[in-house]
Amino acid sequence: MTHDRSAGLVETARALADGTITSRALVEQALARIETSQASLNAFRIVRTKAALAEAEAADAQLAAGVRKPLLGVPVAVKDDMDVAGEPTAFGCRGEFPAVARDGEAVRRLRAAGAVIVGKTNTCEFGQWPFTEGPAFGATRNPWSPEHTPGGSSGGSAAAVAAGLVPAALGSDGAGSVRIPASWTHLVGIKPQRGRISTWPRGESFQGITVNGTLARTVADAALLLDAAAGNHALDPHRPPAVDASAAIGRDPGRLRIALALKPPFTALPARLRPEVRARVVELAEKLSDLGHTVEEADPPYGQIGLTFIPRATAGIAERVREAPFPALLDRRTRDAARLGGLLGGVPLRVARRAEAVLHRRIGGFFTSYDVVLAPTTAAPPPRIGAMLELGGLATDRAMIAACPYAWPWNVLGWPGVNVPAGFVGGGLPVGAQLLGPANSEPLLLSLAAQLEAELRWPEVWPEPRVSADSPVA
C-alpha cells in the first residue's frame, strides 16, 4: 500500500484515522525516500530508522484500539536544534554530541499528538546564516535546483518538505530562519508569536528572538502542525493566549487594509530588492486587491530597530558557544560573533531588551491604519551552494543582508509572520512574500494565506524528483 508523496499532513492524518494506510507503511515509505535522497539533497543530520519504525507500530496498535489523536502515526521531521530523547542535538556543529535524556517541549507535544519523529534535519552552525552548509554535514541542497541552497537556517526541514520526504516539519526562526527557506523552496512557513511553540528546555532562545515554527506545502498543514506543537512548559516566560490556527483555514478574512512594504528596514549595510523579486511580490499585492482587500504602499516605522537586534543575536550566540563541547571546532565567524556578544551582553543587551516595549507601541500604532503588512521575504532568489560558506565575517554579513534584509524585525517584536509562495524567478527559483501582523494575529494571517492559496493553488506545483545515485554529494 503506497501513499503518494504529495499527500499533506491533513490528508495523511485522515487516511490513518480511516484505516486506509498504516503508520508502519507510511514511515517505511518516508524512510525509503529519505535514504534515496540523502546523497543528493542531504536534508537530514539524523535518521531515526529503528526508533521511528517502533513508534509507528505503537501508533498502529493505538489506531486499531480506536484511539484518535491529531497526528497519530504521521511521520514528521524536526530541526536539529530541538531535543529528541535518545538523540544528540548538534545544532549544525562538528563533533560527537551526547544523546539527550528527554524531549524538548515542542517535540513532547508533537509526540503527545501522535506524531512519529523520523529524523532531525540539517541546519547551519547555531542557525546563524541563510544557508544550510558546513563541515559538520556538507551542503543541504534545494529540491528545485540542486546547485542552490534551500536557505537557512531551517534548510534541512524545508528541503525535506519541498521534496516530499515528509509532509511537514518543525524549524526555528531567529531572523527569518523558517520564512527564508520556506520562500526559497515554495513552502508555507509560519513564524508564530513568541512563546506559541515552546523553546524549552530554554525559556528563551537567543534572548527571545528565536521561536519555533512550522514548514509545510499548504496553509492547512502548517496550521495543523502549529496546533499540535503549540503550548507551554510550566516555566516558560512567554505564554501567549491560545489560538486555534486550523480553525482559521477557510474562514473569510474579511476585507483587509494591507500595507505593501517594499523598502528594506534600516540596516548598516546596503540592501536592494531585486526587480524580479519585486515583480512577484507586486503580483501578489495585485491578487489581494482583486480579492477585495485595500492595498497601498506603506512601510512600518522601523526606525533604528537593527540596533536592538545585534546585541540580542550575538549575546545568544555567546551563550551557545559557552556551552559548546568543542569550541575549537566552531567556525571562526561563530567565535567572532560570540566575542561581540560578550562585549554587548551587559548594558547594551539590557537597553536592547527594554527597547522592545517602545517598538511595540510605535509599530503597533501602524496597525491602527493597517491590518496586515505584505513584504518580500527575501530581496533575492536563493544563492548558489558555497556562495557564503568561505566568506569572512563582514563579507558574510554583507551577503546575508543583501539577500535577506526583510525578515528579522519581526523577531525583535516577537509577532507572527507567514511566508507564502510568490512564484518563480529566472531559472525556476522559488521566491516568497511575508504576511506580517501584530501580536497574536496568527488566525488572521492564516485565513488570508489560505484565501491566497485557494486562488493561486501553489501546492499543485512540485520540483522534479532528483534522487539519482550519481547526484552531487557535498
TrEMBL record:
E.C. code: 3.5.1.4
Keyword Hydrolase found: yes
Keyword terms, alphabetized: Hydrolase
Domain of life (superkingdom): Bacteria
Single GO MF annotation: amidase activity
Start and end residues of each Amidase domain: 26-446
Keyword Hydrolase attributed: yes
NCBIfam families found in the cross-reference section: PRK06061.1
Family label: Belongs to the amidase family.
Protein name as it appears in the record: Amidase
Originating organism: Streptomyces doebereineriae
